[in-house]
Design goal:
Elements lengths: L1 H13 L19 H8 L3 H13 L2 H6 L6 H15 L5 E2 L1 H8 L6 E5 L10 E6 L13 H18 L7 H11 L6 E3 L2 E2 L6 H8 L7 H9 L6 H12 L10 H4 L3 H29 L7 H11 L4 H11 L8 H11 L1 H17 L3 E2 L2 E2 L8 H5 L4 E2 L1
Antiparallel strand pairs: 1-8, 2-3, 2-4, 4-5, 6-7
Helix pairs in contact: 1-5, 5-6, 6-17, 7-13, 8-17, 9-13, 10-11, 11-13, 13-14, 14-15, 14-16
């Protein structure tokens, strides 16, 4: 009965638009389709896994609505309900929030990779700055491409979760802040979806300097179905580590192994920082906070930003955190003192405004809006 109700709900939003053209859900122009064309040529394990797992489980109306819809946001919300009922996303980033985020303009140069090129490294072509927006160079995101990115993120979260799951809302807010889910972005500040930098990449695979080799080794040996799109990459990169060079942009930004590698390294590094730096340090100075997922999450987020691990631990020293420190007071201090957390919260408000269609042309009308703590935390953007 529930599935029948949800299918009917979707149909109400969908009816009457059977002949509509495929929609760019991020407001870009359809002719800016180089990223879509690259996605269609992609035949990597991540793409194959996406096709195998989502098509059989999806309802026909959700599949049909990806190309033709009157109000994408409403259909996306309804399809999220179906995904929660049918899988394969038991705890995951939600599609409507991802789509809202793609309507932000994060800035950064977009690179399209030739997925069929036999050369190594693969050729990348710049398609301009994403901040220009339509009608200039911003690449079109269709519903299928948005759903593919969501699938990739959620599979990486499942794969890299151990007895303590990765918090999907932290990953969503990180990506929203960095790239608005545009995985083709690359610049001096970082590469791809999670804007990876040399220190994080080196930590994951460098035999001499890396401390997170165990994460890659775990994925390479994993029998978990969710690790299938990442297993080959982990094995190959352990044998022949990848770096951040100008000539290998596609290794971190293309629609197949580039997206998968970016998520593997990015979420893997997040978990590594949490487990090997933040929690052990808290266990020493304030054991009552080591099990507080919110505090651990905030400190891990700071560590993965420009302030780094030293910045996160420095804030603990600055606030004289000890055995009597209360979580609520420390949370307030971290949010006010970390410039990266401040930026992240601002970008989350932009996402929420876009989700509610609170914009006038390219200007958001957020100034007088009040959002709940759950919305700002990202809790309403994940399925539990």
């Amino acid at each position: 009965m529930r599935n029948l109700f949800l299918s009917t709900l979707i149909f109400v939003f969908y009816a009457g638009v059977a002949n509509a053209a495929e929609e760019c859900v991020n407001g870009a122009l359809p002719q800016n389709d180089q990223l879509i064309q690259a996605y269609r040529k992609n035949n990597d394990p991540l793409k194959k896994s996406f096709i195998d797992e989502t098509k059989p489980a999806a309802t026909p109306i959700c599949n049909h609505a990806q190309k033709q819809t009157l109000n994408f946001m409403k259909v996306a919300q309804a399809c999220d309900l179906m995904a929660r009922a049918n899988g394969p996303f038991p705890s995951s980033v939600k599609l409507d929030c991802l789509v809202a985020s793609t309507n932000r303009r994060p800035g950064g140069e977009q690179f399209i990779c030739d997925e069929s090129s036999p050369t190594n490294p693969r050729k990348s072509v710049s398609r301009g700055n994403a901040a220009d927006g339509p009608p200039n160079t911003n690449q079109c995101f269709t519903r299928e491409l948005a759903d593919y990115v969501r699938y990739a993120i959620n599979q990486a979260i499942k794969c890299l979760s151990n007895e303590e799951p990765i918090d999907a809302q932290l990953i969503l807010k990180k990506i929203n802040n960095e790239t608005s889910f545009n995985f083709s972005l690359s610049g001096n500040g970082g590469r791809g979806l999670m804007q990876l930098t040399t220190p994080a990449v080196r930590e994951m695979t460098n035999v001499k300097y890396g401390q997170a080799l165990y994460v890659m080794q775990e994925v390479a040996k994993s029998s978990k179905k969710s690790c299938a799109p990442f297993r080959q990459i982990a094995s190959a990169d352990l044998a022949n580590p990848k770096g951040i060079q100008q000539g290998n942009i596609c290794d971190w930004t293309n629609t197949g192994d580039g997206l998968a590698r970016n998520l593997l390294y990015g979420i893997g590094y997040h978990r590594h920082v949490r487990e090997k730096y933040i929690k052990p340090h808290l266990q020493k100075i304030a054991p009552q906070l080591a099990g507080n997922r919110e505090i651990v999450g905030l400190l891990s987020t700071i560590s993965f930003g420009p302030e780094g691990i030293k910045g996160a631990l420095g804030l603990l020293s600055k606030n004289r955190v000890g055995k009597k420190t209360q979580a609520a007071g420390l949370k307030k201090s971290l949010l006010s003192q970390s410039s990266y957390l401040n930026q992240r919260e601002e970008k989350q408000e932009e996402l929420l405004c876009l989700k509610r269609n609170l914009k006038d042309g390219t200007n958001l009308k957020c100034d007088d809006m009040k959002f709940s703590d759950a919305e700002i935390a990202g809790n309403t953007c994940v399925s539990k």
